[in-house]
Amino acid sequence: MLTPYKRQIAEFIGQNADIRVGSYVLTTDGRSSTYYFDTGAFGRGRQLVQAGRYLSSEIELRVPEEADALYGPPDKGIPLAIATAMQRDMSYIVKRQHVKSREGQKGFVIGCDIMPDMRVGFVDNVISLGGSIQSSINFLKELENNLKFPYAVVMVDRQEAVDGESAVEIFKKEYNIKVIPLLTITECMEAWKDKPEQNVPQNFLQAAAKHLLQYGTDEAKAEVERLMAV
Fold first, then answer.
1. Where are the beta strands (DSSP E) in the chain?
2. What does the domain layout of the chain look like in residue ranges?
3. What is the pTM of this model?
4. Which residue, of 14, 17, 144, 195, has the greatest Cβ tally within 10 A?
5. Average pLDDT over every residue of 176-199
């Protein structure tokens, strides 16, 4: 059963995120999807402040090892990482869209200097197969190979599977990173089924269920069957 706090987060997402149904391709992973979820629609300061509070609180509660800086994978992770860093008074790192013709890493990033042995935490809107965070790891290691990545905190885990195994679990094992979602997509579905939100299409549950029954983890499939049976 969802806690009141998780329902509060689901309500915030359902009222402020851009949530659609249709035919989409996950940008970094290439997998087709019947639904689209984007916190890039957090276009007002108060929305980002609240998102930063939720993400910061999750780090406070569930991360045993704090990071030295936060990094948001382009593009949607950038404002979330900065909002979270502001809540925690932490350093942040942002990838430049256009490389500056100066020497050193400052031509590639904005924010704090990247130092050897630095611990970099990731903040992103969703995790599906982990492609955006993998790309971010590769980018950062090109600038400084000796880095540590203790955690990735995300708004929503899409509960995707690869060959029957949780994509998040595969990612965690490969990179030894703790992945911390505020919510899973099935938790969102449960909350929005009980209390429809203004930005959630009426047929979202059916579209998300169709996707999860094809691509989701065993846990997600069981949750979908339970939700759709009620």
1. 18-25, 32-38, 69-71, 91-95, 109-111, 120-127, 151-157, 161-162, 165-166, 178-184
2. 4-229
3. 0.94
4. 17
5. 93
